[in-house]
TrEMBL record:
<comment type="subunit">
    <text>Part of the ribosomal stalk of the 50S ribosomal subunit. Interacts with L10 and the large rRNA to form the base of the stalk. L10 forms an elongated spine to which L12 dimers bind in a sequential fashion forming a multimeric L10(L12)X complex.</text>
</comment>
<dbReference type="GO" id="GO:0022625">
    <property type="term" value="C:cytosolic large ribosomal subunit"/>
</dbReference>
<dbReference type="GO" id="GO:0003735">
    <property type="term" value="F:structural constituent of ribosome"/>
</dbReference>
<keyword id="KW-0699">rRNA-binding</keyword>
<dbReference type="Pfam" id="PF00298">
    <property type="entry name" value="Ribosomal_L11"/>
</dbReference>
<dbReference type="InterPro" id="IPR020784">
    <property type="entry name" value="Ribosomal_uL11_N"/>
</dbReference>
<keyword id="KW-0488">Methylation</keyword>
<dbReference type="InterPro" id="IPR036769">
    <property type="entry name" value="Ribosomal_uL11_C_sf"/>
</dbReference>
<keyword id="KW-0689">Ribosomal protein</keyword>
<dbReference type="InterPro" id="IPR020785">
    <property type="entry name" value="Ribosomal_uL11_CS"/>
</dbReference>
<comment type="similarity">
    <text>Belongs to the universal ribosomal protein uL11 family.</text>
</comment>
<dbReference type="InterPro" id="IPR006519">
    <property type="entry name" value="Ribosomal_uL11_bac-typ"/>
</dbReference>
<dbReference type="Pfam" id="PF03946">
    <property type="entry name" value="Ribosomal_L11_N"/>
</dbReference>
<dbReference type="GO" id="GO:0070180">
    <property type="term" value="F:large ribosomal subunit rRNA binding"/>
</dbReference>
<dbReference type="GO" id="GO:0006412">
    <property type="term" value="P:translation"/>
</dbReference>
<keyword id="KW-0694">RNA-binding</keyword>
<keyword id="KW-0687">Ribonucleoprotein</keyword>
Amino acid sequence: MAKKLAGTMKLQIPAGQANPSPPVGPALGQRGINIMEFCKAFNAKTQDMEQGSPCPTIITYYQDKSFAMEIKTPPASYYLKKAAGLKPVGKRNRPRGAETPGRETVATVTVAQVREIAEAKMKDLSANDVEAAMKIIVGSANSMGIEVKG
């Protein structure tokens, strides 16, 4: 007999750093999911990824308090900021793109770096080939104020 679905939720958790503290603990606890079991399973699945990289995670939970998770690759903006070498700024000490994209350029990346990002993100993008995926990544770069050269 199939499990009865209770719902789904989305969280963005740093790779290898899931712990019961907010925002993970309360979000899972109010849905009746075993927090420590989730943290151990998530950290085990993301141990081969770069520690601290944000991982969008879709959690499907069932009425018998069990769960399944789908971990996606980090956002394109994370890869672009890393490739461009943007330094952390602001109150939250995170790298930021341009205040006015299109008028202001904060960094540049090469076509080779864009191809590398597109290949890493390929399984999560709705593109048929790497060339189409590169166009998606270039669009993200433009909207962040990052110029693609070469």
